Amino acid sequence: MCGIVGYIGNQKAKEILINGLKSLEYRGYDSAGIATIENNKIDMVKEKGRVANLEASPEIGKLTGTIGIAHTRWATHGKPSKENSHPHMDNSNTFAVVHNGIIENYADLRKFLTDNGYSFISQTDTEVVPNLVHYYFSNDKSENTLNKFLTAVRKAVSDLKGSYALEIISSLFPDVIIVVRKDSPLVIGKGNGENFIASDIPAVLRYTKDFYLLDDNEFAVIYKDKINFYDSSLEPHNKEIKNIEWDASSAEKDGYEDYMLKEINEQPTAIRETIGSRFRLGEPCSFDDIDITKSYLESLNKIFIVACGTAMHAGLVGKAIIEKLCRIPTEVDIASEFRYRDPIIDEKTLCIFVSQSGETADTLAALRLSKSKGAKTLAVSNVIGSTITREADYTIYTHAGPEIAVASTKAYTSQVCLLAILGIYFAELLGSYPKVKLEELKSDILDLPSKIESVLDNTEKIKEFADKVYTQKDMFFLGRGTDYDVALEGSLKLKEISYIHSEAYAAGELKHGPIALIENGVTVIGIITNEKLVEKTISNLQEVITRGAKTFIITNQVLPNNNFSYCLNIPATNELISPILSVIPLQLLSYYISKNKGLDVDKPRNLAKSVTVE
Ligand code: AGP
């Protein structure tokens, strides 16, 4: 939540900061602000609402400096308003700060500062930070040196409890930006005579491909032509630079109306890249990045898959795959529940954490809990160097490319694909599933990109259906087995971008209560891809048709004559990986319903892409 950008160099900072903020808007978009330094003075402009409002602000012209920090906000403390938007300054206007995260003890710090004569303009937790820096700086009676500034920042930060990625500038030191992070992401892009800071790599990918990934409790002092790194005691150290191979255009809309539509259409490539060189037909799967052995797998009594939202839905499919291929009991849990329910974990448990961003606060906390109980941890993530990947014992990456739209699409299908490959890898090590069947499954995985393309060829048909149902108030999604897992994902997608209330049910569960909600004209979406369950699911759908429901069926089966309102055929594949195909019509359906309603598809209300707070 919240996106931060920084620039120091010879160009006007404003344009670069606004470009960066625009690509970070997925992290929050209720207000935005920029501070630059010119002639030893900090100039600041803030506006409520989207970055476009900031860009259009009549005051924006006053930002002429070549050093600056910027922020797009997702409100936690204090309502969205100009006063509460970042940057925040200390009372003397000497220090300006932008912050992503939450300062949990801000009330105590605010009281301490108030008792020491400081006053506050905003209701935010962040405003304590510049004032604390000022407090420590002004109480140090030594000469004003950069070291004194850095020491004041370190002292201020050591008072903070919670999570933070901070950028700090000072009118007394117009040639540097100081940054530090703990449990919130921050990267530094190295340019030629200029440097960039951002919450994520895509925000500044158009300017550089060389990045430093700041560690927790690490400080950096960033000049235009050098960057100095320090540990938590301010001991200097060298840091390895990473070259990022992503193409800058992968973080742009590339002619599509919205990122979500672009990302839906990128799924054939995302799956191809995720498969990569992990297997070939006739050869065992290989994961160079993990050294899990047969004896370790044999020692396991349980696997946990822990995640949030869409990533958790991918985990549900992962459970079906691992249990079927490996016969290891696998439990899926929502990270925010798992972390507080005293789960039974020991060294015989493997805990898998699925997270597109690798920054989700609850998933990270669940990972830390699992490690503390002796379990091995494995991250499935899309973002190289993200916090979860750095803390897990093992990491395997989906190679979906940057996912910008708040609603996750290509990350979900890539996660399911990678969990399937992981399941095959485990099964090959264990010898737990017939080799010939594993080869068939591999062949089905290799066919996925072209099959996704043929599902995408049906876009017009799905759009027509969306045109008919976009005024509905409620919708239901039904399925059995992995079709139920997809129903959950389809229902979440619809809720988050179209604001239509929807429920997903295991089809057989309907008559135990929710069928009371079915009345004339209600839309029910049925997913049928498991040959063994066709008749069962059809019977459940007949029950809703009898009660007046309109049904939209997504299937890869030959269905008997029926009275469904619409039926969309998708290519056949192994039922374990069919969610990768059956979810696509549901993604498109939500997308076109949202468009019909005139909503902002990429930035739905109240949501942010990276949920870095509890
Ligand atoms: C997906 O459409 C959602 N916006 C959300 O549920 C998301 O999947 C969840 O917040 C988890 O994010 P992560 O994968 O980055 O951990």
> Which strand order spans the largest sheet, edge to edge or round the barrel?
3-2-4-1-10-9-11-15
CATH superfamily of the largest domain: Aminohydrolase, N-terminal nucleophile (Ntn) domain
Regions with little confidence, pLDDT below 50 for 5+ residues: none
What is the highest CATH level, the class of the largest domain?
Alpha Beta
CATH topology of the largest domain: Glutamine Phosphoribosylpyrophosphate, subunit 1, domain 1
Separate helix tally = 18
Which ligands, by name, code or SMILES, are bound?
2-deoxy-2-amino glucitol-6-phosphate
Radius of gyration of CA atoms, rounded to a whole number: 26 Å
Q: How big a fraction of the residues is strand?
A: 15-25%
Query: What is the tally of beta strands?
Result: 25
Number of domains: 3
Describe it:
The chain is α/β, with parallel strands linked by helices. It has three domains: 249 residues, Glutamine Phosphoribosylpyrophosphate, subunit 1, domain 1; 192 residues, 3-Layer(aba) Sandwich (Rossmann fold), CATH 3.40.50.10490; 139 residues, Rossmann fold (3-Layer(aba) Sandwich), CATH 3.40.50. Helices cover 35% and strands 23% of the residues. It has 18 helices and 25 strands. The strands form four sheets. An eight-stranded antiparallel β-sheet has the order 3-2-4-1-10-9-11-15. A hairpin with a 4-residue loop joins strand 9 and strand 10. Helix 7 packs antiparallel against helix 14 and helix 15 packs across helix 18. The longest helix has 22 residues. The N and C termini lie close together (11 Å). Bound molecules: 2-deoxy-2-amino glucitol-6-phosphate.
